[in-house]
From TrEMBL, chain A:
This is Phosphoribosylformylglycinamidine synthase subunit PurQ. It comes from Streptosporangium nondiastaticum. It comes from the Bacteria. It catalyses: L-glutamine + H2O = L-glutamate + NH4(+); N(2)-formyl-N(1)-(5-phospho-beta-D-ribosyl)glycinamide + L-glutamine + ATP + H2O = 2-formamido-N(1)-(5-O-phospho-beta-D-ribosyl)acetamidine + L-glutamate + ADP + phosphate + H(+). GO terms for molecular function: ATP binding; glutaminase activity; phosphoribosylformylglycinamidine synthase activity. Part of the phosphoribosylformylglycinamidine synthase complex involved in the purines biosynthetic pathway. Catalyzes the ATP-dependent conversion of formylglycinamide ribonucleotide (FGAR) and glutamine to yield formylglycinamidine ribonucleotide (FGAM) and glutamate. The FGAM synthase complex is composed of three subunits. PurQ produces an ammonia molecule by converting glutamine to glutamate. PurL transfers the ammonia molecule to FGAR to form FGAM in an ATP-dependent manner. Pathway: Purine metabolism; IMP biosynthesis via de novo pathway; 5-amino-1-(5-phospho-D-ribosyl)imidazole from N(2)-formyl-N(1)-(5-phospho-D-ribosyl)glycinamide: step 1/2. The active site is at C87 (nucleophile), H196, E198. SMART domains: GATase_5 (SM01211). The lineage of its organism: Bacteria, Bacillati, Actinomycetota, Actinomycetes, Streptosporangiales. Keywords: ATP-binding, Cytoplasm, Glutamine amidotransferase, Hydrolase, Ligase, Nucleotide-binding, Purine biosynthesis. Its EC number is 6.3.5.3, 3.5.1.2. GO terms for biological process: 'de novo' IMP biosynthetic process. Its main location: cytoplasm.
Automatic annotation (TrEMBL), chain B:
It comes from Streptosporangium nondiastaticum. It comes from the Bacteria. It catalyses: N(2)-formyl-N(1)-(5-phospho-beta-D-ribosyl)glycinamide + L-glutamine + ATP + H2O = 2-formamido-N(1)-(5-O-phospho-beta-D-ribosyl)acetamidine + L-glutamate + ADP + phosphate + H(+). This is Phosphoribosylformylglycinamidine synthase subunit PurL. The gene is purL. It is found in: Cytoplasm. Monomer. Part of the FGAM synthase complex composed of 1 PurL, 1 PurQ and 2 PurS subunits. The keyword Metal-binding applies. Gene3D superfamilies: PurM-like C-terminal domain, PurM-like, N-terminal domain.
Amino acid sequence: MTARVGVITFPGTLDDRDTQRAVRIAGLEPVPLWHRDKDLKQVDAVVLPGGFSYGDYLRAGAISRFSPVMETVIEQARGGMPVLGICNGFQVLTETHLLPGAMLRNNHLHFICRDQKLRVENADTAWTSDYEAGQEISVPLKNIDGRYVADERTLDELEAEGRVAFRYLDGNPNGSLRDIAGITNAAGNVVGLMPHPEHAVEPGVGTGRTDGLGFFTSILKRLVSAS
Amino acid sequence: MTLDTVKHANETPDVDQPWAELGLKQDEYERIRSILGRRPTGAELAMYSVMWSEHCSYKSSKVHLRQFGEKAPEADTPGGGALLVGIGENAGVVDVGQGYAVTFKVESHNHPSYIEPYQGAATGVGGIVRDILAMGARPVAVMDPLRFGAADHPDTKRVLPGVVAGIGGYGNCLGLPNIGGEVVFDPCYQGNPLVNALCVGVMKHEDIHLAKASGAGNKVILYGARTGGDGIGGVSVLASETFDDSKPAKRPAVQVGDPFQEKLLIECTLEIFREDLVDGIQDLGGAGLSCATSELASAGSGGMRVELDRVPLRDATLSPEEILMSESQERMCAIVEPGKVDRFLEICEKWDVIATVIGEVTDGERLEIFWHGEQIVDVPPRTVAHEGPVYERPYARPDWQDALQADDANKLARPATAEELREQVLKVISSPNQASKSWITDQYDRFVQGNTVLAQPEDSGMVRIDEDTNLGVAVATDGNGRYAKLDPYTGAQLALAESYRNVAASGARPLAISNCLNFGSPEDPAVMWQFAEATRGLADGCLALGTPVTGGNVSLYNQTGETAIHPTPVVAVLGVIDDVDRRTPIAFSDEGHLLYLLGDTKEELGGSAWSQVVHDHLGGLPPAVDLDREKLLGEILISASRDGMVDAAHDLSDGGLIQALTESCLRGGKGARIVVPDGIDPFVLLFSESAGRAVVAVPRSEELRFTDMCGARGLPAARIGVVDGEAIDVQGQFSIPLAELREAHEATIPALIA
């Protein structure tokens, strides 16, 4: 039996079908989850995809965190279930405090869509074990509220504990503090990042690279070896 | 105040009505009276006035647009045979094979975008997306052909960032990749920017839906956003007649968009389609409920009865006239069998979309609208939707046309030295029109949906539509107002030819077109002549290329005072590619590949980028069009792509060969060594804008096969160089390092606008 990865759809989620495709390409079974259902359908891991859930009203991710599905996700994430938040999903994870910090509007105030070079800083998380620490990858970045901020103490803590998972290379695209593109929780099961690995999993489309596939093969290995 | 019911209208035939303020002419008002056999009620007058407006009725353009049908390619042509739904529906539909149908359309949102750039552009995207959705299709991509005033004009700095942010803000929230379009600057668009928006949608043949209301007893369901007072625009006079002083006075004439609501509407509607719950469907755009109800009813078999007071409102003080005319966004109207209504409403509830049964299809022939039980509209729906006035506007070739054409651009002073040629190359490729637009297009999401194969700055945007078979579609939009000003007939054909060439250059087979015809005032015979010539040119061109017109949009009155914009027909060509892995990009990515120039290069500088940038000149004749040659070039490019004979291809158009080389080199990060063939002047080689040309990069192993193919089919192919080094090196002339080229090409737009 292959591992099952839940992909949540909130109203306004955009990359849910793309994420399901990436999960499938990696050899996992994607399971659509609906924001109103508390039931996670016994999935082994969950991805919160990108988009503008609830129209980003109030603040990106601020309303989604109160959705019924998130109650269960928060509970199970604390119990060790792997959770990946991409872009808006990362914003939701910071709103739930599963991950520290917050995302503000890009320092140049524009939406930016580009192929973004990253360095994988932590290759020991549930979602990054198929990379090597220090590996450079390119995946699409596309957001308007992507500037990662946290207080100095939190940032120092993240650095000290090796919880900065990804850093921007070749130019910080949005003013994120310490070039942070993504972080992990202490246990390494909850990871969030602004760039979109699910858009870099097939050679013929998107940027033409498959640098993002490692997220999904990492979780596959983790789940298969656990079972 | 008294409700102006049908009964009341019968009793008070002599009431003065504000038909003139609503934009109707006296004879048009008289015609409404004669259709109804009485004076219209306020609500009826409101409906007729918006539906008989130029925007909705095409009353000035109709007689010319007929050619698109009359000259449509026969069914035995690839394009003619592929047409599933033609002009007249929300959008045309084309068969692309494997059971798939593709619908696409380009529309204008010019005037609102000048007044309120962000919302104008945003709702332009929203409107075209709903048109595509209403056909039964999932929207899969958008594109935006944009034209602004001079790049360094202060007002451009107001309009452009707002338009770009509006397109991004709305389109990005819908999850639609933005895969192409254009950005053009010219002083002629200073007070009249052109904001055109295109959307492409995909469905299976059996999922095609049409806007019709049939089957007596079927329910009329309005769903989506609540109706507010936005976008009433032309009826503000009427509004002030029916408003009393305690109400809010003027509301903005520009609609306000909510992309989150539209995203829900898309997903909700697609789920409704999947369960086959609708008989007919129509989006609400221009003219709002007036348009949706009258068009649905006239396309169906019976009549329609609507209880207008059931419409959910954002503002409870709206009058029935205002509700009928409101252009509030993110609304759709569906015709649903009674047995399916519950399920329909359930799906709407799932997506938090408000849905209300507002009426039903009747077995009569009238569109009847009631307000709290009293009848306020009783009309034959066709007279509102389709039988509006038609004008044969007078047209005449303007007296300045001869002088303009006599002012030959080929006689302008040319660079005297190689050094001067180098300077002019840098000047042209760094000019606002020729410079990289990535600062703009990087504000649009081009990756969402995960099917984007090609996006700007590629020749065409391309998306995969089937993951298993790799079937894809490509779309390019092109227009050149400068060419069309010099000769509208040829200019329209050049727009068509360029768009066709762009699609073919990326490896896709052109099938059909949509167009957005942007012109000045139809009341000016010179403008009307431009329009007549452009439509004739386009219709003739489509017949010759075998690509039918599937629909489109006309935008008139793009002028300030007496000064009209350049006639600007924008053409969008849709093509199909069997295997997207075979697509041809523009990038020169491998050293050693041989560069071939396909087609004939003549001395054709009329309307060229060079003449504009170096001499601020517009005169002479545009490049000549040879549509047989375009077809041949297209076939060669498509075969080369399918059989893997070329690694890169780039169409030649504004800016000429040097523009194409610049873009292909920078895209691939490789230089090019160019050898000027004997018998051609280096300046002409680099800057001429002769049509029917492309540059291709051929791997050495494929050279013989490729040149044999060109030779056998009679397409001139001249070897002009090789992909090599870190510079564009035109031997014996000049060399420009890629870094210098990149700086020149990419710094311009951010410096002007950011």
